[in-house]
Write a structure and sequence with these properties.
With 334 residues, the protein is mainly α. The chain contains 15 helices and two strands. Strand 1 and strand 2 form a beta hairpin.
Amino acid sequence: MRLGTAGRDTAPPAVEALLRRHRLRAWELAPWLVAVAVYFIFPGYLALGAQILISILFALSIDLILGYAGIITLGQSAFFGAGAYAAGLLAAHGWGEPLSGLVVGGLVGAALGLVSGAIILRTQGLSLLMLTLVIAVMLQEAANKAGSITGGADGLQGMEVWPLFGVFHFGLYGRTAYLYSLAVLFLAWLLARRLVHSPFGRSLTGIRENEARMHAIGSPVFRRRLVIYTIAAAFAGVAGALLAETTQFVALEVLGFERSGSALVMLIIGGVGRLYGAFIGVPIYMIAQDRFAQADPVYWDFWIGLLLILVVVFARGGLIGSIEQLLHRFRRRR
C-alpha cells in the first residue's frame, strides 16, 4: 500500500482499476427496473412473474457452477427439490414462517451439495454428468416411496405459510409472492456478483479454462470446486423453498430432470457464464412456452426446440453474447 498526499493509504493502480471495472454500472439496474415496472403494468400476471423470478434464481445457481467453474450438471434439481421439501415439510408441520423456511431450504440444499459434491466432483466429463443426474433421480424416487411423509405422487399438501413479517399475506393474485421473490433474487444476485468478481471467482474461471495449469500453480482446485458447488446448491435450495412457500404445494416434479434440463436451456438462450444470462433466457423461454402452449397445445415443444436451435446456430454465446459482438463491431467501426 502507498501513502497518499492526504496521509491516507491508497490502493495500487491495478487494484483501483479492478475495483472501477467491477463497480456497479447503471445498465445493471435495468432488469430490476423492468421487474418493478411489471408489478404495476401487469398486475394480472404476477403469479407467472413470481415463477419467472424463482426460475431465474435457479438458473443463476447453474450458471455459477457451469458458466464459471465449468462443472457440467443435469442434477441441480436435486438441491432445488430438497429445499422445496424442507420448507414444505416445515410449513406442513406447524411452522410456516417464510424467512426461516427459506433459510432451512438453503441450508438443506447446501448440505446435500457438500456431501454429494465431495464424492462426484472427483470425477469429470461424462461420469460427472451422469452422477449429477443419478442423484436427482434417486432423490425423486426416494420422495415417491416416502409417500407418508412427502405425499408421494399426490404431492405435499396441508402447508400453511404465515404472512410475511406477520402482515403481508400470500394471496391469490401473487402480489406478495412477486415482491418476496424479487427481493430474494436481488440479494442472491448481489452475492453472486460479488462472488464472481472476487479473487475466488477469478480462480474458478482459471479452473474452467485450464485446470492443469491451476494445479501447477498450487491452486486448491478440488476444494474451490466443492465450495462453489455447495454455494450453488444453497442458491437452488432457496429457489425451491421460494416455490414451496409461494405456491404452498410441493410436487415430485421439483426433483425431476425436466426442471434441470429446462433451466439449462434457458441459460443457453440467455448466455452461459455472463451472470445475466438467466435474466434474459428465463423470461424469454417461459413467456414463449406460455404463448406456444396456448397457440399449439400439442406441439408447443417443437417451437421451443426450434427456438433453441436458432440460438445455438446463430447466437453461439446466447443472446447476451450476440449483443456483445454487435457492440464490439460498432465500436471498431467508430
